[in-house]
Amino acid sequence: MVKEFSEHGYWAIILGGSSGLGLASAKKLAAHGMNICVVHRNSRVELEEISKEFEVIKGFGVEMVSFNIDVTSAEKRSDMMTELAATIGLENKVRCLVHSIAKGNLKPMVSEEKAVLGNDDFLITMQNMAFSLYDWTKAVFEAGLFAEDARVISFTSQGSSQAIENYAAVSAAKAALEAISRSIALELAPHGIRANCIQAGVTDTRSLRMIPGFEQLKTHSINRNPFKKLTLPEDVANVVYLLCKDEASWINGAIIPVNGGES
């Protein structure tokens, strides 16, 4: 396997890189020689299993650091930037920032049995799944850690434009995420930064299994997919890798479907 990123000393910051699409992306980039910084939020019980995944990443012969912090904390983010800058050094730079945060509320708008969606639920979901993209892009930019040709990549879903039951807060966050990504693509382009969203097909991750009725979503997606199967995390990670290559430098401000034709 060609490790084309290793000769440049590139780093990737993966927000939400301990599972799902983020972890798959971290592994794919590491396999091609990119050093990895994973930002995640997990309990002590979960850390033992996650540490095994991190060892797999290190097994590709790259540098790897992780920070178990709240991505919405400005203080934690600032402290991490200082530590990461010391780790990376002056020569190496961040080639890509991958946003894979999946912390959101999945409550109905109307129910007699369950708690219903409130304003706070929207705020928490938007802060984690949308606004944090800008917060982290701004933090890396102001720290001077981006490479001259850098990529900001985030994961959206068809729910950004399609109503799905119990998905209202996440749907709003995904729509906002896409809007923020487009603005980053416009305003940071003069600084060599490209920003794109990957609209992944239905993928059997822990985040999907939190959605009420996810089994029906899986069945529906398989039935309408030309290949009659779900999107895999590795399918999405492959496109993250492609977007990080030199040849992808002219892709900017796009929403890229990665679903095998499901949509």
Strand and helix layout:
Layout: E1 11-15, H1 20-31, E2 35-40, H2 44-58, E3 64-68, H3 74-88, E4 94-99, H4 119-142, E5 146-156, H5 168-187, E6 193-200, H6 214-224, H7 233-244, E7 255-258
Parallel strand pairs: 1-2, 1-4, 2-3, 4-5, 5-6, 6-7
Helix pairs in contact: 1-2, 1-7, 3-4, 4-5
Folded structure, characterized:
It is a single chain. The protein is α/β, with parallel strands linked by helices and 263 residues long. The chain has one domain (6-258): NAD(P)-binding Rossmann-like Domain (Rossmann fold, 3-Layer(aba) Sandwich). It is built from seven helices and seven strands; from the N terminus they run βαβαβαβαβαβααβ. The protein has a seven-stranded parallel beta sheet, with helices on both faces. Helix 5 (168-187) links the parallel strand 5 and strand 6.
